[in-house]
């Protein structure tokens, strides 16, 4: 990646944190609206008619086109319950990771590369795996970058598949578990599980923040 000036880096960091704060506020507002305003019986009726396979197939395919995956996790928990929601979300997430990696390594790679050339980032090459794990973590934990772009970038950078799959699946999976539980708690008005899910999200966010801070300190020391 090309180096950025300290001023630009600070501005990007502030913008990223503002976006995250707005995202958290929007999520809380949405949760409050769902908690107090929706028609519980109407949703129950919709849930009885909802198809498991079409829903999780959409979760596997649409995020590869840029559709956010977080709402899918929440609706999965609210619609199918925690057990089915987690199992279906795991299969959909794994399928999405496979699809994005295949697209990034397919004949569409030159077109994706031209699109990326318009940004301030270069595509490194980790064909031999050296430094690939650190790069995968840096990309997956980068703030403000859409999920599908992260997955395509890792595939285009020739990050070994097992590193790409393990890092992407683990990090996204941690959020998925919390959001699925949160989705069911919103439907059932379960304050205990809802608080547990929010605490889990906060713990993951704190861990990511501490890791970024550690990496920034380490980079400055070098």
TrEMBL record:
Primary residence: membrane
Keywords: Cell membrane, Membrane, Transmembrane, Transmembrane helix
Membrane topology: Multi-pass membrane protein
Cellular component per GO, a single term: plasma membrane
Keyword Transmembrane helix in annotation: yes
Lineage: Bacteria, Pseudomonadati, Pseudomonadota, Gammaproteobacteria, Pseudomonadales
PANTHER family, A to Z: GOLGI APPARATUS MEMBRANE PROTEIN TVP38-RELATED
Transmembrane segments: 21-38, 50-76, 83-104, 131-149, 161-182, 194-211
Protein name: TVP38/TMEM64 family membrane protein
Family: Belongs to the TVP38/TMEM64 family.
Keyword Transmembrane: yes
Compartments, as annotated in UniProt: Cell membrane
Domain VTT intervals: 67-180
């Amino acid at each position: 990646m090309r180096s950025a000036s300290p001023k630009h880096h600070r501005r990007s960091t502030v913008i990223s944190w503002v976006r995250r704060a707005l995202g958290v506020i929007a999520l809380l507002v949405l949760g409050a609206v769902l908690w107090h305003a929706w028609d519980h019986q109407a949703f129950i009726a919709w849930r009885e008619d909802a198809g498991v396979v079409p829903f999780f197939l959409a979760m596997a395919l649409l995020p590869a086109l840029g559709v956010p995956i977080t709402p899918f996790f929440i609706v999965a928990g609210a619609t199918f319950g925690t057990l089915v929601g987690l199992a279906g979300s795991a299969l959909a997430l794994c399928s999405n990771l496979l699809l994005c990696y295949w697209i990034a390594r397919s004949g569409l790679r030159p077109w994706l590369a031209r699109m990326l050339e318009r940004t301030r980032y270069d595509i490194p090459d980790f064909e031999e795996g050296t430094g690939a794990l650190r790069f995968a973590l840096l990309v997956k934990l980068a703030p403000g970058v859409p999920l599908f772009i992260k997955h395509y970038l890792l595939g285009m950078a020739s990050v070994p598949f097992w590193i790409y799959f393990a890092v992407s699946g683990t990090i996204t999976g941690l959020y998925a578990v919390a959001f699925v539980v949160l989705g069911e708690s919103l439907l059932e008005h379960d304050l205990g599980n809802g608080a547990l899910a929010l605490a889990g999200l906060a713990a993951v966010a704190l861990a990511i923040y501490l890791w970024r801070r550690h990496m920034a300190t380490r980079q400055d020391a070098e």
